Amino acid sequence: MRTVIAGGHGQIALRFSRILHARGDEPVGLIRRPEYAADLRAAGAEPLLLDLESAGVAETAEALKGADAVVFAAGAGPGSGADRKDTVDRAAAVLLADAAEAAGVRRYLMISSMGADPNSAFDGDPVFRAYLRAKGAADDDLRARPDLEWTVLRPGSLRNDPGIGRVLLAEHTGRGAIPRDDVAAVIAELLANPGTVGLTLELIGGVTPIPEAVAGIAG
What we know:
Elements: E1 2-6, H1 11-22, E2 26-31, H2 37-42, E3 46-49, H3 57-64, E4 69-72, H4 82-103, E5 107-111, H5 126-143, E6 149-155, E7 157-159, E8 166-170, E9 177-179, H6 180-192, E10 199-205, E11 208-209, H7 210-217
Parallel strand pairs: 1-2, 1-4, 2-3, 4-5, 5-6, 6-10, 7-9
Antiparallel strand pairs: 8-10, 8-11
Helix pairs in contact: 1-6, 3-4, 4-5
């Protein structure tokens, strides 16, 4: 299975690439900077240089040719302002969906965020509110596309603790934290299970082994 990952140099993306490579799949990571390529190769992924903030649909669709699935794991990142939350967390996700449709790649998994809402009234940091609104708008755009087999995953607070392989995965979980290792493992299971198409799921740490958690939520 060939999977193209937007934001291929991100922490979750690199972990996810290692999982795919270990099971014999073909991860491809989209990166903005050529110096990221060595890290992707070390994770078993093929690096592909493409800036989703400046690329068009045709160029992006060309990068997706031959793929079985796409995963949106990109993000503007800490320290970025509200404008980049929109251009990366919303617009780049929409571009990837447009390109997936153009390239005939139906499977699309969105790594979103708990609390994502295009009308978020979060009353703290305005940049974080812009992030939640951008992610929510991207989720809504994806879920309105009947030609794509989408899944939206909304993890809780991300941690770098070692994964434990046990999670709580549900439509609504309540607030909580989750190791990035376990997020990557859940993504791999979700992609492998067609029963998760059309679901928007929250994810935090829990007690259920990841394969059981995904099997239990699959439609």
